[in-house]
Design goal:
Layout lengths: L6 H14 L2 H8 L6 H8 L14 H14 L3 H10 L1 H7 L10 H13 L3 H14 L8 E9 L7 H8 L5 H4 L2 H5 L6 E7 L14 E15 L5 E8 L4 H9 L8 E3 L9 E3 L2 E3 L8 H10 L2 E2 L13 H14 L1 H12 L9 H29 L1
Parallel strand pairs: 1-5, 5-8
Antiparallel strand pairs: 1-3, 2-3, 3-4, 6-7
Helix pairs in contact: 2-6, 4-16, 5-6, 5-7, 7-16, 8-16
């Protein structure tokens, strides 16, 4: 007959989890989640309960569930199951074995209310204020870059694609609300360029590999010193990187004026299966250079290779030095994609912004834990 688990058995198991390095326990120790309560309360605008009914779950507890989801790339249904299954999740949420656990629908409704109220920017800024209060000010300049975030592919006709690009709802969808609700009208196709492998004779092909990609794009500005995300923006995947620089992506509170960014990503204008890719999504443009100068920033953006001419030696050397600094932003995207599995499961840019905003907050939390651990060991 199987022995029934008692209180001390659970405590012993939790102690073992602590010894093995429970990341969520480190989150609880280092991050004060109560700082989010005012923003959550304002966004949710819960009633005082005077009208009766079952009281809602604590908003901070629910927000911590979104953190768990983001850390582990979980669906709502999987989240509900694992909260009931894992002691580490229960401890992080402050739940006992006999406590009521939010179901998948409750998690969805909570996230949806935050999404529709536009709360994610305030929540991000709230934690950024926490970082600044802890001494992690944005210093030493900033680095800009963007990364593509995949979304479920849409099977649309060419006519439907043309309507979507023009900002219209396809006529066939208008009287089919169920179909319309499952169609992402904001995500776009673009071309993702990647370096091809060496050939068998050890030579490199003359062109990069172009891969069709569907989804959204995350634009970020990180501070050079601590590598926290300080500014960010979500767009469709086909949006130009360079134009975002002039749309609030630069952090004016950084103590240094230098701005690092890559000049361009794509070769000349081309089209594959109707997917257009503009040749210069560049951060380095006359409009951007003028904008940065007027705003008091110093451009450290790579210079482009002259067309049909070899790159001058001094520019090549300067770009190499800039690349060492600019490459630090790649670690941000690698953490979000490899560790958190960043992917858009939802429909529409409003929900995509919520998903990406949560990933940015959780990345900053993970980075905060890392830096605090280093400081404690020093």
């Amino acid at each position: 007959m199987m022995k029934r688990a008692g209180f001390f058995d659970v405590e012993e198991r939790l102690a073992r989890l602590s010894g093995l390095g429970d990341q969520l326990e480190a989150f609880s120790r280092t991050v004060d989640f109560e700082v989010f309560r005012p923003d959550l309360g304002h966004a949710l605008a819960y009633s005082d309960g005077s009208k009766g009914g079952r009281p809602p779950f604590d908003p901070v507890l629910m927000f911590k569930i979104l953190v768990i989801q983001t850390l582990n790339n979980l669906s709502d249904e999987r989240t509900e199951y694992l909260i009931n299954d894992r002691l580490s999740f229960m401890r992080f949420l402050g739940l006992g074995l006999s406590d009521r656990v939010p179901d998948a629908k409750t998690v969805w409704l909570f996230r949806e209310r935050l999404t529709q109220s536009g709360a994610i920017e305030g929540l991000f800024n709230r934690f950024d204020a926490t970082l600044r209060n802890a001494g992690y000010l944005p210093i030493s300049g900033q680095i800009l870059d963007a990364t593509l975030v995949a979304a479920p592919k849409q099977r649309n006709t060419n006519a439907e694609k043309a309507d979507l690009r023009a900002g219209r709802i396809p006529e066939d969808w208008q009287d089919k609300p169920a179909k319309l609700s499952h169609k992402d009208r904001h995500a776009r196709w673009t071309l993702k360029f990647t370096k091809v492998k060496r050939q068998d004779d050890e030579t490199m092909p003359s062109s990069d590999l172009a891969i069709p990609f569907f989804g959204y794009k995350l634009h970020v500005s990180i501070d050079r010193k601590y590598r926290f995300i300080r500014k960010w923006k979500t767009t469709d995947a086909a949006a130009s990187d360079g134009a975002r620089l002039r749309e609030g992506l630069l952090d004016k509170t950084n103590t240094a004026s230098s701005v690092w960014a890559k000049p361009f990503r794509l070769p000349s204008m081309l089209s594959i299966d109707g997917i257009m890719a503009e040749g210069d999504t560049a951060y380095r443009s006359k409009a951007n250079e003028d904008f940065m100068e007027k705003q008091g920033f110093v451009s450290k953006v790579h210079r482009k290779k002259p067309q049909l001419k070899p790159m001058p030696r001094h520019i090549q050397k300067s770009n190499a030095g800039k690349s060492v600094i600019r490459s630090r932003v790649e670690h941000v995207f690698a953490d979000q994609k490899s560790q958190m599995g960043l992917f858009i499961r939802t429909v529409g840019i409003t929900r995509a912004t919520m998903r990406i905003g949560l990933a940015n907050i959780v990345y900053n939390m993970r980075r905060f834990l890392f830096l605090e651990r280093i400081n404690a060991a020093a």
